[in-house]
Amino acid sequence: MEAKQKKILIAVNDLVRVGGAELYTFDLIKAFATSESFEVEYFTFNKGLISKKIEEELQIPFMNQKKYDLIFATHNTTVKELFGLAPIIQICHGTILEPEQPSPLADYHIAISQEIADHLTKLGYPNEVVLNGIDIKIKRPLNPINKKLTSVLSLCQSEKANNKLQAICNKKGLRFKAYNKHKNPTTNIEQEINNFDMVVGIGRSVYDAMACGRPSLIYDNRGYNGNKADGYLRPENFAKYVKKNCSGRYLNRQYQENELIREFEKYNPEDGEKLRNIAVSHLNAYKMVDHLLNAANQLNWRNRLRKWKRLTNHARLVKHVYIYKKIYAFTKNEYFNRSHIDK
């Protein structure tokens, strides 16, 4: 007798555009979908570029069932929306932005870095670290890199950062291109990465570059993060920088043009293969599926008790999910769906 497929729902607030959480969700869905043990669906409030890719390339449908065996939810907004459909494990991608904060409604929490895990622990949420998952089968080296640096791809989301990088490349005679998810997004970034020797960015941009065997420079100047850099990623430093999601917050340096030129000069083509091996060992989305499923073992009575204790400090949120949400579903009266109810 064949084992019954587990119904898995993977949720994220937004799938309109290219971004770290969105691409993480895509790779995670694909990793789950490769196993015949799971029936996978997805949920988002806002469909768009990435949801289209999920449906067309992976043939994964939007949520259409009333109950699931397990939900993996990125962003506290999705936890609140899906509460009651299954046990929920919230995957937390940051410590700064409000939607990335832990929801008291979730049954357990996953942190994608040690920095986030420490943040969750400080707030009283049991958790464990499962690093960013990358589809290492698609994101892989396709073209060799040059012995001497000839080209740079920026995945920075800041015009300030890209202008500095452009100026440096012009001075040094390097080919330069920038992909900013807010201006010229691409859903197949691995193809672009493979056309350059080195990649500049933070977070998932660095992990994608590593998977493609590219040396990387950890730097960006995002509004919420500021001018932050860990510098050129030597393979032996990955274990340190990944503790803060290769965000620039480990060394917490501010780079101007002179500092960036210095880091460019550290380029070593041999680092590309070493970084690829690290990505295969530590950032493999297909292995992450097993890690995430093992986290379901933490849905025990101790953590359930901790959850109920947390909820005693969130009376309005409890009223929303247990009372107002049901009344709204029955009456469609917008009063019971207003955001202030659960604040």
Q: What secondary-structure arrangement, pairings included, does this model have?
A:
Blueprint: E1 6-11, H1 20-33, E2 38-43, H2 49-57, E3 70-74, H3 76-82, E4 88-92, E5 108-111, H4 114-122, E6 127-129, E7 151-154, H5 159-172, E8 175-178, H6 189-193, E9 198-201, H7 204-211, E10 216-222, E11 226-232, H8 238-241, H9 257-264, H10 270-282, H11 285-295, H12 301-311, H13 315-331
Parallel strand pairs: 1-2, 1-3, 3-4, 4-5, 5-6, 7-8, 7-9, 9-10
Antiparallel strand pairs: 10-11
Helix pairs in contact: 1-2, 1-11, 7-10
Structure description:
This protein has 343 residues and is of the alpha/beta class. The protein is built from 13 helices and eleven strands. The chain has helices at 20-33, 49-57, 76-82, 114-122, 159-172, 189-193, 204-211, 238-241, 257-264, 270-282, 285-295, 301-311, 315-331; strands spanning 6-11, 38-43, 70-74, 88-92, 108-111, 127-129, 151-154, 175-178, 198-201, 216-222, 226-232. It has a six-stranded parallel sheet with strand order 2-1-3-4-5-6, with helices on both faces. A five-stranded mixed sheet has the order 8-7-9-10-11, with helices on both faces. The longest helix is centred in the C-terminal third of the chain and has 17 residues, at 315-331. A hairpin with a 3-residue loop joins strand 10 (216-222) and strand 11 (226-232).
Q: How large is the count of helical segments?
A: 13
Q: Structural class given helices, strands, pairing?
A: alpha/beta
* Assigned CATH superfamily of the largest domain: Glycogen Phosphorylase B
Number of strands: 11
H and E order? EHEHEHEEHEEHEHEHEEHHHHHH
- How much helicity do the residues have? 25-40%
Provide mean pLDDT, rounded.
Answer: 90
Sketch the major β-sheet. 6 strands, parallel
CATH architecture assignment name of the largest domain: 3-Layer(aba) Sandwich
Total domain count: 2
Query: In the CATH hierarchy, what is the class of the largest domain?
Result: Alpha Beta
Strand content: 15-25%
For this structure, the CATH topology of the largest domain is: Rossmann fold
The N- and C-terminal alpha carbons lie at a distance of 48 Å
Broad shape: globular
What topology, given as strand order, has the largest sheet?
2-1-3-4-5-6
Runs in which pLDDT lies below 50 for 5 or more consecutive residues are none
> Radius of gyration from the CA trace?
21 Å
Organism: Sphingobacterium phlebotomi
Keywords: Transferase
Protein name: Glycosyltransferase family 4 protein
GO molecular function: transferase activity
